[in-house]
Design a protein that fits this description.
It is a single chain. This protein has helices at residues 4-16, 18-52, 86-94, 134-137, 150-155, 164-170, 205-209, 216-222, 242-256, 272-315, 317-325, 330-370, 383-410, 413-418, and strands at 60-65, 83-84, 98-107, 116-118, 121-123, 126-130, 141-145, 159-163, 181-184, 187-196, 211-215, 228-229, 231-236, 267-271. The chain is of the alpha+beta class. The chain has two domains: 4-53 and 277-418, no CATH class; 82-256, no CATH class. Strands 1, 3, 4, 5, 6, 7, 8, 9, 10, 11, 13 and 14 form a twelve-stranded mixed sheet that branches. Strands 2-12 form a two-stranded antiparallel ribbon. Helix 2 packs antiparallel against helix 10 (272-315), helix 10 (272-315) runs antiparallel to helix 12 and helix 12 runs antiparallel to helix 13. The longest helix has 44 residues, at 272-315. The chain is elongated. The two termini are 30 Å apart. Keywords: ATP-binding, Cell membrane, Membrane, Nucleotide-binding, Transmembrane, Transmembrane helix. It is found in: Cell membrane. It is a multi-pass membrane protein.
Length: 420
């Protein structure tokens, strides 16, 4: 396998027609290169789209009340479903698999009418009434102060946590908002914390930056919401699928709010886990397409290697006849041909992997220079894929050399010597 004379002969075979050798090797190079780049692009798209989900727990769902589509127990069709604070306790009691059941209230919106003022500055912001555990469901970077705690909830404190968009709109550069006051619909609130909207929030980043968090109990009292809940953010414990729990959650809520058990429209919901699963499923398909396309191109390269070796065997018929007449065994001849195939395949394939790695480095460098790009981040290829590609190259190289190798040893030495 590592005899010097054999390697010299292999180099001479490749140099006999370098252009033909280059074109054959390029088929394998291009197949591996396309495979690596396609898988890197798929990973980049998966990372980018996954970041658009933000840091919100993917094993979560949102739930809100809508209008009933069926009359039930004397209540009319079209009745607006209103969740209550007690519903959270009922859900936690009946479904211990739930980690968080966060009641939420909402007021205004950053695209709506101005609802927040500070001195002469005004702005339109989303005001969200929340419980402390919401930061566990939607992690955020607290840049100063703190988030809401249960002392705020129990004492109904008028404290707010504001996003960086709110800070830049209501406060001057370098001005410390902590301890200062803003007015929401004419009511004074003290700023107890500021947060930076996560860059991974995608299209929701601007809205998140322009959000003001208020203790839920304070929110309901100040804005006369009673015990009403606008919507729930629900997260299941690790190891429990929120998608599997969702039918039971909706069933309990229909019982709580006296809704027809068959009324599918009365309660709206968004299953983040299910949506995330659909996205990852799409990228699994794209990954398969990458393997499939790369595999087809690689297969065409293997056919090229078979062809060049068959031609090489035909051109070297007399040489093979002489070697056989001098006592070379069939396995010695086959080993020579297979080694030629394996050498050409591995060299061209590893060059393709190296070129693909170079393109991936350039993509990441460009991203680092240009900043975050929507729906695309950190293109990369797992080292396991590279190992698999190397194994495929070795198997393909041996397989591609088998047909010419068998062909080389099928003819008798006397007939080979007669061939012109």
């Amino acid at each position: 396998m590592f005899k010097k004379d054999r390697w010299i002969e292999i180099i001479e075979v490749f140099n006999a027609n370098p252009f033909r050798t280059f074109l054959t090797a390029f088929g394998v190079f291009w197949g591996i290169f396309i495979l690596v780049v396609l898988l890197a692009l798929t990973t980049g798209l998966r990372n980018g789209v996954s970041k658009d989900f933000g840091d919100f727990a993917t094993n979560s769902m949102f739930m809100w009340g809508q209008g009933t589509s069926k009359p039930y127990k004397g209540l009319p069709k079209g009745r607006r479903v209103q969740f209550k604070l007690e519903d959270a306790a009922v859900l936690k009691d009946k479904l211990p698999q739930l980690k968080f059941v966060s009641p939420k209230g909402q007021l205004g919106g950053y695209n709506g009418a101005n609802n927040v003022t500070r001195n002469e500055k005004t702005g339109a912001f989303t005001v969200s009434g929340d419980y402390p555990e919401y930061i566990e469901q939607q992690p955020m970077d607290i840049t100063a102060g703190r988030f809401i705690n249960y002392s705020d909830i129990n004492e109904k404190r008028k404290g707010v946590v504001i996003g960086d968009g709110v800070v830049s709109s209501l406060f001057d550069v370098g001005e410390d908002p902590i301890g200062d006051y803003i007015k929401i619909n004419g009511v004074n609130f003290m700023v107890i914390g500021t947060f930076l909207s996560p860059s991974s929030s995608g299209g929701n980043a601007e809205e998140e930056a322009n959000t003001i968090y208020v203790p839920f109990t304070t929110f309901n009292q100040v804005f006369n919401r009673g015990d009403n809940v606008g919507w729930f953010a629900i997260t299941a414990h690790d190891g429990t699928s929120i998608t599997e729990l969702k039918p039971r959650i909706l069933e309990i809520m229909r019982e709580q709010r006296t809704i027809d058990p068959t009324d599918e429209r009365a309660i709206g919901n968004f299953d983040r886990s299910e949506a995330f699963g659909r996205v990852t499923g799409l990228f699994d398909i794209l990954k398969f397409v990458g393997f499939f396309v790369g595999g087809l191109i690689l297969a065409s390269g293997m056919v090229g290697i078979i062809n060049i070796l068959l031609i090489s065997v035909k051109e070297r018929t007399n040489e093979i006849g002489v070697r056989r007449a001098l006592g070379a065994s069939p396995w010695n001849i086959r080993g020579q041909i297979i080694q030629e195939s394996l050498t050409l395949t591995i060299i061209s394939g590893m060059t393709g992997i190296a070129a693909g790695a170079g393109v991936i480095w350039l993509m990441n460098y460009a991203l680092s220079q240009s900043g975050p790009v929507d729906n695309f981040a950190n293109p990369s290829v797992n080292i396991f894929v590279v190992v698999i590609a190397l194994i495929i190259l070795i198997i393909s190289g041996i397989s591609a050399g088998l047909i010419p190798a068998v062909r080389a040893t099928q003819m008798k030495p006397v007939d080979a010597l007669k061939t012109e």
